[in-house]
Amino acid sequence: MKFVAAIGRAVLDFLPAIGRLAIFTATSLSHCVRPPFYPRLIGRQMLDIGYYSLPVVGLTAIFTGMVLALQSYSGFSRFNAESAIATVVVLSVTRELGPVLAGLMVAGRVGAAMAAEIGTMRVTEQIDALTTLSTQPHKYLVAPRLIAGLIMLPCLVLVADIIGVFGGYLVGVYKLNFNAATYLANTWQYLETLDVVSGLVKAAVFGFIITLMGCYHGYNSKGGAQGVGAATTNAVVSASILILVSNYLITAIFFGK
User: Fold this and answer.
1) Distances from the Cα of 165 to the Cαs of 145, 182, 188, 216, in angstroms?
2) Dihedral sign of CA atoms 244, 247, 252, 253 in order
3) Which of 111, 254, 98 is nearest to 167 (CA)?
4) CB neighbour list of residue 27: distance below 8 Å, 6 or more residues apart
């Protein structure tokens, strides 16, 4: 009976957390579409999420494309199917690896920073000071980050797709000695608009998840420095898990039969 009681206790603890998250999400979304807006704050968050994340996302993308080309060659050469390497690289990067890896990298960089910043504001009572000054915390702190995440993650993923395909091209042409024109022709021949669009839709969802988890855990942190550290960890872990779960759901919607 202790085991059953532990399961029941976990479920009862989980349900209020889901309710708090749903209320926080609805409140934040309502402030994203209602004036007043803070364009300067939105621009600063777009710069932080997009521009400053380009190096880590670009490095991840180019080496992923290079490794994918090498691994595809080592497998396809057994079946004399080396001509499919370009197609596999471009489809894998645009559909899956570009959005997912970019989302995980941004979650580790941006989600943790958001949780730490807002969590510090919470434990030092700066959020209470905003309320005292008649400034809605959701409007000032959360809404600009959500809007910036929705806009900048697709931009980052589009750049990551280009860099990842270029990494596969470098390995295919300069290491595996493929003809450059043939490799590019195979890349464009089987690439469809849906492949790119599905990746960008995933990126927008991932951007919303990352910023939402960072803001939620930071906003509800408590207990001083230890609470801020826990909020940072929870933000990264929860965002990463939700990215993987939502990735499957969106893939099932676009490509499931």
Assistant:
1) 29, 14, 11, 35
2) positive
3) 98
4) 138
**Euclidean distance between CA atoms 140 and 42, whole angstroms:** 10
Residue 67 is encoded by which pair of tokens? 């490794």
Half-sphere exposure of 103 (CA within 13 A, CB side): 32
- Report the Cα 158 to chain-centroid distance in Å: 13
DSSP string across 190-210: S--HHHHHHHHHHHHHHHHHH
**pLDDT digit string (tens) for the chain, length 257 residues:** 778 888 888 888 878 888 888 898 898 888 888 888 888 988 999 998 988 999 999 999 999 999 998 888 888 777 777 778 888 889 999 988 899 999 999 999 898 999 999 988 888 888 888 888 878 888 888 899 999 999 999 999 999 999 999 999 998 888 888 888 888 888 888 888 888 999 999 999 999 999 999 999 988 888 777 888 888 999 999 999 999 999 999 999 888 76
| Sequence ranges of the domains in the chain | 38-255
CA distance linking residue 17 with residue 257, whole number of Å: 34
The answer to whether 206 and 128 are in contact (CB under 8 A) is: no
What count of residues does the chain have?
Answer: 257
Distance between CA atoms of residues 57 and 69, nearest Å? 18
What CA–CA distance (Å, rounded) separates 146 from 32? 8
